[in-house]
Amino acid sequence: xxxxxxxxxxxxxxxxxxxxxxxxxxxxxxxxxxxxxxxxxxxxxxxxxxxxxxxxxxxxxxxxxxxxxxxxxxxxxxxxxxxxxxxxxxxxxxxxxxxxxxxxxxxxxxxxxxxxxxxxxxxxxxxxxxxxxxxxxxxxxxxxxxxxxxxxxxxxxxxxxxxxxxxxxxxxxxxxxxxxxxxxxxxxxxxxxxxxxxxxxxxxxxxxxxxxxxxxxxxxxxxxxxxxxxxxxxxxxxxxxxxxxxxxxxxxxxxxxxxxxxxx
Length: 264
Known about the structure:
The protein is α+β, with helices and mostly antiparallel strands. The chain has helices spanning 6-23, 29-38, 45-54, 83-92, 126-129, 157-164, 234-248, 253-258; strands spanning 65-72, 77-79, 96-108, 116-122, 136-137, 152-155, 174-177, 180-187, 203-206, 221-228, 260-263. The longest helix is centred in the N-terminal third of the chain and has 18 residues, at 6-23.
């Protein structure tokens, strides 16, 4: 099991709220305030209200979007599955036509004005899964998921406006993070911020997946979602995810007795 920070715990609670919102976008403001208070995130109340009540979720096919978790029934602990499990599901799935992973970390831009930059990580097909297109430029290419490929970057919409004045000639520029030079290939759509309601990412980079999902840029997955294939049921998705999970941890029976998967 991966170790999760306090923010990851908050994101776990947000996942349940988001899944309910996918199904019932008309939730009342009072319910959302209660959710935020219950997870100890009172400072996020306005952000949740702004993202959900004032601006309905903009994702294509949102009725088929589901969230993927691990669940320990006794203590009621919910965690995000690790990258290797999700990559196995992604490679063998029949119930889902897409399995997506989102992570985040802080990186530092280079001198002379070093600053912490919030970096989101995604798989190259995340935008198409959500029915989104870049505000400028192109999305990540499948080849940019392969370790060793030239580092590519999408600027967050707000970061593009604040740091680059919303200029179109930002494409092709280089942004150096943690001593690695990334080439700007596009600008993320503003609506991608709906997936990061607690902390909007400044920029986005592609996860780079090694053999068997073993190398995820050393960034833990903080949100896992999937899209049910047309005609597939939620129960079929649950059974398939549980089967893949059991195969991944077949050498650890004690873990399988404690943990189950969730598709919600």
